[in-house]
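Researcher: Sequence of Putative ABC transport system ATP-binding protein follows. Predict its structure.
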Amino acid sequence: MELVNLCKSYHVGDMDVPILKSVDLRVAQGEFVAIMGPSGSGKSTLMNMIGCLDRPNCGQVLVMGKDVNTLSDPELAKLRGMEIGFVFQNFNLVPRLTTLQNVELPTYANKKAGIDARKKAKELVKMVGLEERMNYKPSEMSGGQQQRVAIARALINDPSLILADEPTGNLDSVTGNDIMEIFSDLHRKGRTIVMITHDPELAEYADRVVNIRDGIIVSN
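Model: Prediction complete. Tokens:
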């Protein structure tokens, strides 16, 4: 994943408000990168750019060598579904679905040739330690268990990049450390991870820390 001279602004009233200013960032395959910055620094907008959830005003976002600006909306949706696994602070599970169904959900729109979605979902649920809760719904599980489901869901399409936005923000410190150990294990197995966080202790799990302030990367 690479950002080249990236700029992003939003139109507010009669003004264009710049959020990201000439950002350059490259994440190599297999890296674990933490992005840190104070509130209002632009890290959420940066996450949206990396996750192909929004398009830049200038510059390039390259994912697996593909320039996001050249893709149609359906092509961009497919890229997100196949190449990026999302883990959010608020879990974003579907309340009426079971653990297994939530993990399986991304395969409905993005099927890879030869994948047995149900079999792989079961394997991932076991991997995150929830084999006994495959048929539980989110309301029947703790926050830490829900985040484990979210991690399994993020892996179901075998993405090139895992993007985690404050993945322990709604968890106590002990449960948060358990979640970070899962990310560390995924990293040891060769996964590429970009994590947005405000917590210096969590950033220590990463290979590299990128600091952003006022829309500019100040250390990389």
